[in-house]
Design a protein that fits this description.
The complex is a heterotrimer. Chain A is mainly α. In chain A, 72% of the residues lie in helices and 5% in strands. Chain A has eleven helices and four strands, in the order ααααβββααααβααα. In chain A, the strands form two sheets. Chain A has a two-stranded antiparallel ribbon with strand order 1-4. Chain A has a two-stranded antiparallel sheet with strand order 2-3. Chain A is globular, with a radius of gyration of 19 Å. Chain A starts with a helix and ends in a 14-residue tail after the last helix. Chain B is an alpha/beta fold. Chain B folds into two domains: 226 residues, Rossmann fold, CATH 3.40.50.2300; 156 residues, Rossmann fold (3-Layer(aba) Sandwich), CATH 3.40.50.2300. Chain B has 15 helices and 16 strands. In chain B, helix 3 links the parallel strand 1 and strand 2. The longest helix of chain B has 23 residues. The chains are: A mainly alpha, B alpha/beta, C alpha/beta.
């Protein structure tokens, strides 16, 4: 491999990572935009969703990567798996909001965040106790197809990630900007009191934000599983923190920012690992987090200001 | 003065049925063996498999009327805590004290992790309580250089049924240089004490053998994506990839290295020998992976197959290699009790320590004996390669890992 | 009256919060009220000292207890940061690691540089030893544990400041994330720096402490007593700090950062102080912990440790000194002692009542689940924890409530003397604002506004909602940055100064939407107002020397006198938390708090809003008497009768511009004012 090909390959890797981080970051941003709450439970909603996705695929008798489908059966299985995972994840998000966070509505400070840490611990341990600490060979019925481009390799699974991420983000964008409920969400994010007075059902909007954010995490979890052919109870923490960093970098509260931030973090991770060493990846990413928060707290395109109180 | 236990015992109901009532075995001659493993946290499942390996031996012995007439009771201790989220050296130290404080405890099995071992060894040494670890391979604890730290009372008390990282890594480096004829290698480890120690020992010997070590990087075991580093390795085009670490990161290395460079020679230590790699890694990703164990080939011993069958029948899952070393550790202890009983001496800590020191117990890995530091004298490192045999389940360790031979020791 | 209130308040000094619940028990009532906290503390301490004997000197149990004490120390440290100052730190284990490795590296054979003359003085001080080797002599560090205990604390404190500094501007959740980042980075650096830390392999042979030539070795008992001493010292430190000027400043920041700054609290300084002291506790604990274990690995200091310490303080009671100690000890002991026993008992119970699943419950493996549940449960149902930090004071009795309101409309002149000489006598106007312009993005909030407040005058600022009145106050007091223009106070430029500096110059304010510190008592709120006038630092608060005691006593009495300016509206409620007060009383407390800073100029933002006519009249008269005493006052007010009765001069703002100025009578007749102000507000209504 020439060095151009290496960097091209790392960019492809970075974009795939970035697409996943972006989907996950949207969940942080949607909830933060409306509740000003950093939702730690999101980490493990992602993790638990990957198990939902795995079960959905196993319903079709799929296991490992040797069972390959093509054409309509593949499309059918995939569409079912995505719908099932996203619905399952969305419902978990709504349950968390309803039982752990709604009773705390309006209480200032970090009470909400501490609660979500507790919820995150609960989700994590439920999976640990029921599924065990091992790694799982995630079923993947996609054929292994790849195309060489400029010395690098582009694989079908990478196209799947980019495609799904793009479709979901465009759908979210349209939803937020074109539908009544989406506009109500934006209004609530701007000023929840004013929105309430204008007749917006704020509770419904908050439930919607949790549902959408969690469903996107569900989609991210499924493409995570299909990309790595792997899942485990530990996947939430690192991916969640990176995605959160992406949300902050893009500007927390901004949907476009989350997408851009995700891609940038993915690229930084891939190129940083190439240029420095992966043992320092976490240090690099956390340094970015701190630097952005300190010097450009609104991120690339955010409006919420983390220094305002 | 009331003891804490006595205080608890005054509570209604629970006191009567308290933990000691359960341990009050009917036989008049009993000994207690401590088992200290991290049953809480990230390594809980491995700990369970290790315990089950040992329990299989103890239950067998008890079923046959005990070892040399002694019924074996087990004091199970957990050195994992929620506070640490995994093994917790502070809790391990507490547990070591618990065992030392209880006179009925004559020997112990554990710990799983060297981090706990470092905290326990000084305390066990003061109490002259021998422990046999089935899995902790950090060489420091039995290194004479640190004798004043880890065996302040002077005698070895930290015995191992596995050899240390000081042999497994270097022998594999020899094997890769001599047999696989590799000229260059890239090394990865999983940031854990075991993985780093193994990878460092491998690296040192590889360099001595003239293998070009193109790089050595550390993976975050909780991270899912290793494509970055693997792409980097692909671009450097080494002959082989060596991984030092346990299955948690190992599964992902196996899968993703196959995706990115399917033809690369990949090798690892005993961390990639086990059902976890087969189950999590799957085929074809795991195909062709070299793994070593710090013991002779198990299939050479006909008892091994019956052990694995008995294990699977009793616990409903496949044993890991550390289940086997734990079983062996238990056999060493049973053998020691029998020899002491035969000689007519009382079975206590002193006699147990000395009997273990002089062990020639027959185990699944052959006759086990220890040097004066507590290390196993047999330093056979066996090499296996994963070769898919569709006749057997994918995660059947015995049939999916094919024995290749012994890795040559450093002359 | 004042004396009685002082007496009730004084009992709350040390440990009062912890043993409040004892008051209901009958035998306890035999003990005099003011002695009860001390009796409680003494009992706890006596129990701790005799504990090893009570459990028959079982080495393992003593060791568990010693570990629990280490976590109690950590919880006390985190409590300073999270509980007192309200800064959520999710990476607290980083400081624990720093302390542990500072001692661990310097007390093991990890670092052995070549010997040179440089080391000779250190050898003389017994800090290093010379090791003879064939290849050349090496340095062996032999720094004493006792010396390293404070030194590690200092090193950790330094890192506390280093990590705290970038986070100062961030609010709650973000601050938590940044601290989490530091919590991740520290173990990674430790792991990736093997030449100093031995990396992932961990330290070997860290020296045990020695006392008079006797090495502590591996027996748990001496460590236990060091732990008891450490926790006792940290409880003492926490309590002393909490009930001092420092603690009040922290809690003010926790309750309302903006109001704290406006009342003279230097946010930067006190946040860093909290970070530093919290980190110091962890640093010392790290040294203790690693000396006891004689080894350390990077994995001992990861995120779960930080979360567990947080669970401990949430469980015990955030901000409550005795609560967090209890929380830490209960949770730690639960893990190391009781869960296994408890599992066994459940199994036995299962056999007894023939319930199959009970016989297989393994509590140990589900403990993390249990802790997650504790966290959520406490947040939802008992946020104050086991031992709440705030004492509940019983509501006033009916007779006290209905007692004749002492007519306070015009406080006697002698009472006003408490305010000291508030009259400004300099040559320049007291406050002079010229061409002040403030923009928020595209919106111009103030456009070239000018305003002059002569000494000893009352100026009213009126205007419709959104006309820029509060922005004017915020800009003058330093909470909002101006884009151009000048502000002079007593002849000196003050534009751009931090809020706490502005207050120090003699300008105090109230807020339109009342920004009190809701979980502090009335008296504590007012005492925060005195913050800038007091001098007690952390050392003074700790030692509580006669000078500090005097300052504190005088401050307390001074504040009670200020409260008495409002008749008996506030005095009987002096030790009630302000969130329990009526709206009008909260307004009064806010004015009292501003007065406590001994201002020359008082900025009142709608002081009578929400008051009924009688209360409004009473307050107007009180404001008038303040003015007569010599204070200059700027008043934002909607009630025109109040404006007319008080103001010498009226300024009218509309859309950020000054549209009129003059005496109340002149302004009242101004056509533009009537149109802009009354016209629109009528339309809005």
């Amino acid at each position: 491999m020439g060095w151009e090909a290496v960097y091209l390959q790392q960019v492809i890797n970075g974009l795939s990572l970035g697409a996943m981080y972006a989907l996950l970051a949207l969940g942080f941003t949607l909830v933060y935009g409306i509740l000003e709450l950093i939702n730690f439970a999101h980490f493990n909603v992602f993790m638990i969703s990957s198990f939902i996705g795995m079960m959905a695929l196993e319903l079709f008798g799929l296991s490992g990567q040797t069972h390959v489908l093509t054409g309509l059966p593949l499309a059918g299985v995939m569409i079912f798996a995505f719908i099932a995972t996203m619905l399952g994840a969305g419902v978990i998000g709504v349950v968390i909001e309803r039982f752990a966070l709604r009773p705390l509505r309006g209480i200032p400070g970090t009470v909400g965040m501490i609660t979500t840490i507790g919820v995150s611990y609960i989700l994590f341990n439920i999976v640990l106790l029921t599924e065990g600490a091992g790694s799982f060979n995630f079923p993947n019925p996609m054929p292994r197809v790849s195309w060489p481009i400029g010395g690098a390799t582009l694989e079908l699974r990478e196209l799947l990630i980019w495609g799904v991420a793009l479709v979901l983000m465009v759908a979210l964008h349209l939803f937020v900007n074109k539908t009544r409920l989406g506009k109500a969400m934006r209004a609530t994010a701007q000023d929840s009191e004013a929105a309430r007075m204008m007749g917006v059902d704020v509770d419904r909007v908050i439930v919607m934000a949790f549902f959408l954010g969690s469903a996107l995490a569900g989609a991210a979890a499924l493409i995570f599983g299909l990309y790595y052919n792997y899942t485990s109870f530990i996947i939430g923490y690192t991916a969640g923190l990176r995605a959160f960093t992406a949300a902050v970098l893009g500007g927390i509260g901004s949907v476009t920012g989350a997408m851009v931030g995700g891609i940038i973090i993915g690229l930084i991770e891939a190129l940083g690992g190439q240029l420095i060493a992966v043992r320092w990846t976490d240090v690099i990413i956390f340094s970015i987090l701190v630097l952005v928060l300190v010097f450009a707290p609104t991120g690339l395109m955010g409006r919420a200001n983390p220094t305002k109180s | 003065m009331l003891s804490r236990r006595a205080l608890i015992a005054q509570l209604p109901v629970v006191g009567l049925a308290g933990s000691y009532a359960i341990r009050a075995f009917a036989a008049d001659k009993t000994v207690t063996i401590g088992i200290n493993l991290p049953f809480t946290g990230a390594d809980a499942h491995d700990a369970q498999l290790i315990k089950e390996g040992a329990m299989l031996a103890f239950d067998d012995a008890n079923a046959k009327g005990g070892a040399g007439g002694y019924k074996i009771n087990v004091m199970q201790l957990d050195d994992g805590t929620a506070t640490a989220g995994q093994y917790d050296p502070a809790q391990a130290a507490t547990n070591a004290r618990k065992m030392v404080a209880d006179d009925s405890v004559v020997a112990a099995i554990g710990p799983q992790m060297s981090g706990s071992g470092k905290a326990m060894a000084p305390i066990l040494s003061q109490g002259n309580l021998a422990t046999i670890t089935p899995s902790s391979t950090n060489p420091d604890i039995t290194d004479p250089k640190f004798a004043s730290t880890y065996m302040p009372a002077g005698k070895a008390i930290y015995f191992r049924t596995v050899t240390t990282d000081a042999f497994q890594g270097p022998n594999m480096a020899n094997y890769m240089a001599d047999t696989l004829k590799i000229k260059s290698v890239y090394i990865l480890d999983d940031s854990g004490a075991y993985g780093v120690g193994l990878a460092n020992a491998y690296e040192a010997q590889a360099k001595k053998r003239g293998i070009n070590v193109m790089g050595h990087d550390q993976l975050d075991p909780k991270e899912a994506d290793y494509t970055t580093i693997l792409t980097k390795i692909k671009s450097m085009n080494p002959d082989a990839l060596y991984y030092g670490g346990v299955a948690q990161a190992g599964v992902k290395v196996v899968k993703q290295s196959y995706d990115i460079m399917p033809k690369m020679i990949r090798a690892g230590g005993d961390g990639v020998y086990g059902a976890e790699i087969l189950k999590g890694g799957g085929f074809p990703a795991a195909e062709g992976l070299y793994a070593t164990i710090a013991a002779p080939d198990l299939l050479a011993n006909p008892d091994a197959e019956s052990f694995i069958k008995a294990f699977a029948a009793k616990y409903g899952e496949q044993p890991e290699n550390y289940s086997i070393t734990a079983y062996d550790a238990a056999l060493v202890i049973i053998d020691a009790i029998e020899r002491i009983a035969k000689s007519g001496k009382p079975v206590d800590r002193n006699s147990m320590r000395d009997a273990i020191q002089d062990s020639h117990a027959k185990t699944l890995q052959g006759a086990v004996s220890f040097d004066k530091n507590g290390d196993i004298t047999s330093r056979v490192v066996s090499v296996f390669q994963i070769t898919h045999d569709p006749k057997f389940p994918d995660d059947d360790v015995l049939h999916q890992y094919k024995y290749i031979g012994v890795a040559p020791a450093t002359a | 009256m004042i004396k009685r209130a002082t007496a009730t308040i004084r009992q709350g000094s040390i440990g009062g919060e912890a043993f409040g619940f004892l008051r209901r028990a009958s035998p306890v009532q035999l003990i005099p009220l003011h002695l009860r906290p001390h009796v409680g503390t003494a009992l706890a301490f006596a129990f701790a000292l005799t504990f090893p004997l009570l459990i028959d000197r079982n080495d393992a149990d003593i060791d568990s207890a010693a570990n629990a004490l280490a976590f109690a120390s950590l919880a006390l440290g985190l409590n300073i940061v999270v509980g007192f100052a309200g800064l959520l730190d999710l990476g607290y284990a980083a400081f624990f690691a720093i302390g542990a490795y500072t001692y661990g590296v310097l007390a093991s054979a990890q670092l052995m540089p070549a010997w040179s003359g440089f080391w000779e003085p250190f050898q003389w001080l017994h800090l290093v030893a010379r090791v003879h080797q064939d290849s050349g002599d090496l340095v062996h560090f032999t720094v004493s544990f006792w010396l390293m205990l404070p030194l590690s604390a200092a090193v950790a404190a330094l890192f506390g400041i280093l990590f705290g500094a970038p986070t100062l501007r961030l609010k709650g959740d973000y601050l938590a994330i940044v601290t989490l980042g530091f919590g991740e980075i520290v173990p990674i650096v430790v792991r990736n720096w093997p030449s100093v830390t031995n990396g992932a392999m961990g330290l070997n042979g860290v020296a045990a402490p020695q006392l008079f030539g006797y090495s502590f070795g591996v027996t748990a008992m001496p460590y236990y007593y060091v732990g008891v001493g450490m926790v006792a010292l940290l409880i003492f430190t926490s309590t002393r700090l909490k009930f001092s000027r420092i603690g009040r400043a922290w809690m003010a920041i926790r309750e309302d950062e903006i109001a704290a700054a406006a009342m003279g609290v230097d946010r930067v300084k006190f946040k860093l102080l909290a970070f530093a002291i919290g980190a110091a506790f962890a640093g010392a604990t790290g040294t203790y912990f690693v000396a006891k274990l004689q080894t350390a690995t990077p994995e001992m200091f990861m995120f779960p440790v930080s979360v567990m310490i947080l669970v401990m303080i949430v469980f015990g009671g955030i901000g409550s000194v005795w609560g967090v100690v209890l929380g830490a000890i209960i949770l730690q002991v639960l893990q190391s002692w009781f869960l296994e026993d408890l599992s066994q008992w459940l199994h036995a119970l299962g056999r007894l009542i023939h319930v199959e699943w009970l016989q297989h419950v393994e509590l140990a493996s589900s403990i993390e689940l249990i802790f997650g549940v504790i966290l959520v449960f406490m947040m939802l149902y008992r946020r104050q924890g086991l031992i709440p930090a705030t004492r509940r004071v019983q509501a006033l009795s009916l007779s006290e409530q209905t007692a004749q309101v002492e007519l306070a409309a015009a406080p006697p002149v002698k009472r006003l003397r408490v305010l000291g000489d508030a009259t400004y006598r300099g040559p320049d106007p007291l406050l002079e604002i010229k061409d002040l312009t403030v923009r928020f993005g595209g919106l111009v909030a103030l456009r070239s506004v000018g305003l002059t407040v002569p000494a000893h005058s009352v100026v009213a600022v009126i205007g419709p909602n959104g006309s820029g009145k509060s922005t004017l106050f915020n800009t003058v007091t330093g909470l909002v940055a101006a884009d151009s223009g000048s502000v002079h106070f007593a002849g000196h430029p003050i534009r751009g100064l931090a809020p706490h500096v502005v207050l120090g110059r003699g300008m105090a304010r109230t807020f339109q939407n009342i920004r009190l510190f809701p979980n502090l008592t009335v008296l504590e709120n007012v005492m925060v107002g005195m913050h800038a006038r007091l001098h007690t630092g952390p050392v003074g608060a700790l030692l509580r020397l006669p000078g500090t005691r005097r300052e504190e006593r005088e401050a307390r009495e001074h504040c009670l006198e200020i409260l008495s300016l409002f008749g008996n509206r506030l005095i009987p409620r002096a030790d009630h938390v302000v969130s329990s007060l009526s709206y009008a009383n909260r307004r009064r407390v806010e004015i009292a708090r501003a007065l406590a800073s001994n201002p020359k100029l008082l900025l009142l933002d709608e002081p009578t809003a929400g008051m009924n006519p009688a209360e409004t009249l009473e307050l107007a008269q009180q404001i008038k008497s303040l003015h007569e005493h010599g204070l200059a006052i700027v008043l934002i007010e909607h009630k025109l009768d109040v404006v007319v009765s008080l103001a010498d001069n009226v300024v009218v703002l509309d859309h950020g511009e000054k549209i009129a100025e003059g005496t109340p009578d002149v302004v009242r007749r101004d056509e533009e004012v009537i149109r802009a102000y009354l016209g629109r507000s009528a339309a809005v209504a």
